[in-house]
Each structure stands twice: as C-alpha cells, then as structure tokens.
Design goal:
Blueprint lengths: L1 E5 L8 E6 L5 E6 L2 H8 L4 E4 L12 H10 L8 H20 L3 E4 L2 H7 L4 H4 L6 H17 L3 E6 L2 E6 L4
Parallel strand pairs: 1-4, 4-5
Antiparallel strand pairs: 1-2, 2-3, 6-7
Helix pairs in contact: 4-6
Length: 167
C-alpha cells in the first residue's frame, strides 16, 4: 500500500491523507492529529508528503530552484509558516520510520498534477477538499516511486520525488 499526505503546518488545520493499493483502490480522509496520520499510514511501504523534510536558512533548496524553472513559484522555506510545516513533517517522518517499515519521501503536488496531466475534474473522484486531492497526487507519486518510475530533484538529503512524465 502507498500513502500520500498533504500536511498542514498546524494541527488545527486540515491535513489530507490518501492510501492507495497496488490495485488502485483509493481511500481519502481529512484528519488533524499526528497520531491519526501515523495510524493511517502504518501499513504503507512508501508515503509521499507535501511538506519539506529538510530545512535551510535560504529561501530555497536546490530542489525548489530546479522545479521553479519548470513549474512556477513555490513558497520560500525560510518563513515562519514553512518552518513550522517542516518541523511537523520531520517529526512525523521520524515517528513513522521508527514505528514501522514505512519510508517517507517529499513531493510537490502542483508539479505532479502537471506531469501526469491530472485535475480534480478529470479524475471525477469524491474529494472533499483540495487537501485530499493533493494527498491523492502524493500517493500516486509514492506508487510510482516503488515502481521505479520517478525523477529525483535536489541534492542528497533534501530531494523531491516526482513521477516520470507520462508518454
């Protein structure tokens, strides 16, 4: 099973999560607490998250600089909100990898959407909000990662994973 998380910086804000089976069975949910996220992702082999898993004093890491050329502007990582998001994501990664065999990767749903030529309308799925949609894009990326159909951007220790372009 593969997982996707569109993580909110604060626990009181909506986090979208998605699990995706190898048969493409999709389960979407909007949650708030880290404990719930960890419970839902514990059976996933790989989880892709829309949140930075490494921090920097600079506005952008190498991965963002590479991706912005093709996919447009991104939020700078050195703002208070992005620092909070990164702290929460890193803690989730540590907890998930400590308690399970799950591996967490970082992705960027806007780029995934463009690469795979997807939209909420094209998918015709029952997304309750944009967070569930982004979590689905993350889960698709996790699956493509396991299938070795991905590109890696950035430098060691701070990479972003995106699916390979559909031919």
């Amino acid at each position: 099973m593969y997982g996707g998380i569109d993580l909110a910086a604060k626990v009181e804000n909506k986090t979208g999560i998605c699990t995706l089976t190898s048969d493409d069975e999709v389960k979407l949910e909007t949650v708030f607490k880290d404990k719930t996220i960890l419970k839902r992702m514990e059976d996933c082999s790989v989880v892709a998250i829309d949140a930075p898993l490494s921090t920097t004093e600079k506005p952008f890491r190498a991965a963002e600089r590479e991706l912005m050329d093709e996919f447009g502007p991104m939020l700078p990582l050195n703002t208070p909100g992005m620092r909070s998001l990164c702290e929460r994501a890193v803690k989730l990664k540590e907890d998930l990898e400590k308690k399970t065999d799950t591996f967490l990767i970082e992705t960027y749903p806007r780029a995934v959407e463009k690469i795979l030529n997807l939209s909420r309308e094209k998918l015709n799925m029952n997304f309750k909000n944009e967070h569930e949609y982004d979590a689905y894009l993350c889960a698709v990326t996790a699956k493509r990662y396991v299938e070795n159909e991905y590109d890696e951007f950035g430098e060691k220790g701070e990479t972003m994973i995106l699916p390979l372009l559909n031919e």
